[in-house]
Amino acid sequence: MIKTSLYGLMSALTGALDMMSPQLAGHHRQVAYFMLRMGEQLKLKREELKDLVVAGLIHDIGALSADQLLAIIENEEISENDHGFRGAKFAEMFSTFSGIADIIKYHHHPWQDGAGAFFEGNPVPTGAHYINIADYVCSFMGVHGYTMEARKKLVARVQRNTPSRFEPGAAAAVAEMINKEYIWLDLKNNHYEESLESIIGDLTLDLDAIEEITLMFSKIIDFRSRFTARHSAGVARIAEALARLVGFSETECKLMLIAGYLHDIGKLAVSNDILEKTGSLDAKELDIIRSHTYYTYRLLEKIPNFETINTWAAYHHEKLDGTGYPFGLDARDLPCGSRIMAVADIATAILEDRPYRAGLNHEQTANIMNNLVASGAIDGNIVKILISNIERIDEIRIKTQSEADNLYENFYPPEFKNAY
Ligand SMILES: [Fe+2]
Ligand SMILES: [Fe+2]
Ligand SMILES: [Fe+2]
Question: Which residue segments constitute the domains of the chain, with CATH numbers given?
Answer without folding.
Answer: 3-200 (1.10.3210.10), 216-419 (1.10.3210.10)
